[in-house]
Design a protein that fits this description.
The complex is a heterodimer of chains A (131) and B (347). With 131 residues, chain A is mainly beta. Chain A has 2 helices and 8 strands. Chain A has a 5-stranded antiparallel sheet with strand order 6-5-4-7-8. In chain A, strands 2-1-3 form a 3-stranded antiparallel sheet. In chain B, helix 1 packs across helix 2, helix 3 crosses helix 4 and helix 6 packs across helix 7. Chain B has 13 helices and 14 strands. The chains are: A mainly beta (131), B alpha/beta (347).
């Protein structure tokens, strides 16, 4: 099942603005934000905006994609470590798949991440591109 | 005096050359390259549209302005390729830059001058004191029907301008708008591609409005072409803006920094705004700039800018327009381009 409009709308702060939750007790930054700190178990967070640059930690190339992404295949999905050490998963676009390597500098760009068919809502968020 | 306090551009990395399009349609590439003065054009990736490019251009403008986005009081995106027929582009962009909820928003349309309209209204609201900062954006992922002359030029890009009264980078010294009902280019509802009046788009449309608006703007400012350091005109191809400039008495050198269409194509609502962004990238304090947009239908907006000392502080706070134009380009074959632009019917 695809992303529902209600869930997409709830996730706008993290998908549009890269807003993460920083635990006020231990300083651990969670992205996406969580209700309970994975490190210390406390439940108070401050909103912080993540940096927009980082590097590729590892990646894979999707050649047999789910139905709604078949037109984009083959495409790369990567684990990125941002400048502040926070890691996130993202599609890596605008890149020659043969030139992806560990440590590749990347930056965050605002992209269309999926759409609910030809007549449905357009979902936006972040992807990464070579810096 | 109010003016631009931050500016930014965005151009996708994908390109297609005139030769690649011409060979599919059996057209003569050299005659297109010479006749329209076009080499290649930008192409949006499948996950890019007016909203995504507007966000990137605006983020660059905010970096240069150094303001809190919460203080932006209005956002106007001008485009003829808004992703939704009903639902604003501006809501997504405002949310993405963190400017909601205290902000007025409207999407604008007026063929290729919708972007300068957003700038015009933002400047007006700032001057009137109704908002502290105003945001005007010109962006398009323009479409040309397969094989049509427009396919060689219809490109993608965006530029965003923040207006305010403090820390101004380029003061607005004069504005003027010139408009008549001249149906030279249109797209009816539910139609995928625009249609145009062929040669009718030239003299009675583009040139009549562009030249009249430029003349009117200069008259009101009490200036002549010799008084300007730079000029930017709407650029549906490489040839028209050069001809307009020379007819008005400008030199080729005055338009070169903002004359991007030969290697960018026609970014429609983004065209003269991206030209202004590229010109500000090279401008020095005290330089004067004339910008005249053109939108089919038809009308032109004219602006006179005077660059301030602030330009040297903000220029390198965000990528330059030429960074997007000249670096990391990805060239497409026609098949991939057709897939990216939704030109292949699948069922």
């Amino acid at each position: 099942m695809g992303l529902t409009t209600a869930r997409y709308w709830r996730e706008v702060p993290q998908r549009y603005r890269m807003e993460a939750g920083e635990c006020t007790a231990c300083g651990e930054i969670h992205f996406p934000p969580r209700r309970i700190c994975m490190k210390c178990g406390k439940q108070k967070f401050e909103t912080v905006v993540l940096p927009d640059t980082g590097k590729v930690i590892t990646w894979t190339v999707i050649r047999v994609a789910p139905d709604e992404f078949t037109d984009l295949s083959p495409y790369a999905v990567c684990l990125v470590e941002l400048e502040n050490g926070v890691r996130l998963m993202s599609q890596l676009v605008d890149v020659d798949l043969d030139e992806i390597e560990m440590g590749l500098p990347v930056k965050i760009e605002f992209r269309r991440i999926r759409e609910d068919g030809a007549d449905g809502v357009l979902f936006y968020g972040y992807k990464v591109v070579p810096a | 005096m109010a003016g631009i306090i931050g500016y930014g551009a965005y151009v996708p990395r994908q390109r297609i050359k005139v030769e690649e399009i011409a060979k599919v349609w059996g057209a003569d590439a050299p005659s297109y390259k010479k006749g329209l003065m076009l080499e290649e054009k930008s192409v949006p990736a499948p996950d890019q549209d007016v909203i995504t490019m507007s966000v990137e251009a605006t983020r660059n403008a905010i970096k240069r302005a150094g303001i809190d986005p919460k203080e932006i009081g209005c956002i106007y995106i001008g485009s003829e390729s808004h992703p939704y027929a009903v639902k604003p582009s501006g809501t997504v962009v405002a949310e993405a830059i963190g400017a909601t909820p205290d902000i007025h928003c409207a999407d604008m349309e007026f063929a290729c001058k919708a972007g300068s309209e957003g700038m015009y209204v933002s400047f007006g609201l700032v001057t009137a004191g109704l908002v502290k900062y105003g945001l005007g954006i010109g962006a398009d992922t323009s479409q040309g029907a397969p094989g049509d002359a427009l396919e060689y030029s219809a490109a993608a890009g965006a530029a965003a301008f923040l207006f305010g009264k403090d820390n101004v980078v380029a003061e607005v010294r004069e504005t003027y708008a010139y408009m008549t009902d001249t149906p030279d280019f249109w797209r009816r509802e539910y139609e995928h591609y625009p249609k145009h009046g062929g040669r009718f788009t030239g003299e009675p449309a583009y040139f009549q409005h562009t030249l009249s608006c430029a003349t009117g703007t200069m008259e009101r400012a009490g200036m002549t072409p010799e008084d300007f350091t730079f000029a930017i005109f709407h650029q549906p191809n490489g040839k028209f803006p050069l001809r307009a400039a020379l007819k008005l008495g400008f030199t080729r050198e005055q338009i070169v920094p903002g004359w991007l269409s030969p290697r960018l194509g026609n970014t429609y609502s983004g065209a003269s705004p991206i030209g202004l962004s590229a010109t500000l990238d090279v401008a020095k304090p005290g330089d004067t700039i004339l910008m005249v947009s053109y939108g089919s239908g038809s009308g032109s907006d004219g602006f006179v800018f005077e660059v301030t000392d602030k330009i040297d502080e903000v220029r390198n706070l965000a990528p330059l327009t030429t960074d997007y134009l000249d670096k990391n380009k990805i060239y497409l074959d026609y098949g991939t381009y057709a897939k990216y632009r939704g030109k292949i019917r699948k069922g």
